[in-house]
Amino acid sequence: MKNQASSTVALIDYGAGNLRSVANALLASGLARENLVVTANPDEVLQADRVVLPGVGAFASCMQALKAIPDMVPALEKTVLEKKRPFLGICVGMQLLADQGEEYGIHQGLGWIKGKVTPLRPNDSSCKVPHMGWNQIDLTTDSHPLLRAGEAYFLHSYAFVPEDESTLLATTEHGGLVTAAVGRDNIMGVQFHPEKSQSYGLEFLSRFLDWNP
Fold first, then answer.
1. What does the alpha-carbon distance between residue 178 and residue 209 come to, in Å, rounded to a whole number?
2. What is the pLDDT of residue 15?
3. What is the domain extent for residue 145?
4. pLDDT for 88-120, tens place per residue?
5. What CATH number does residue 126 fall under?
């Protein structure tokens, strides 16, 4: 894998609302502008050293938009699952890693990390939905190179419930434990928004740019 200075990052453009802010955050985290490829082209994904899948909105519409790009899902599968390139999913981009989402019906996800995305149901009436604002990140493992304890910014009404506890890497508290990060091998997904999480988020993205799983 190339080092951060020469590593090409494919930021997938499938209509996700936070595309520009994620691009700016990657640049602020140390990625050279010429190495950032904002793309809906599967061939560029296949050539990338790293892949970032952003996402804002409903699970179903995001999955539909991703599938609507010819050959994009197969390109992602080849790049991430076969070539083992580092992958980061953000917010709904993370939720799409699940087997299915339950927003506006049952919809199939990518199925890269076993589990499902279900509505937030806080057991404390003072905890509103959507969950919006800064929350503490609590690690379930101290061995993952990307994650640190700290505060990050969240905005979501649904949460990833992983089937395998070993893929749950971090949680946060919002009327009960809520998944903050999942991952396995070269795949990382975060429910929080690193692009909105100031120094915590930029440091996280910088580690992703140097990550060689």
1. 26
2. 86
3. 4-210
4. 999 999 999 999 999 888 999 999 999 999 987
5. 3.40.50.880
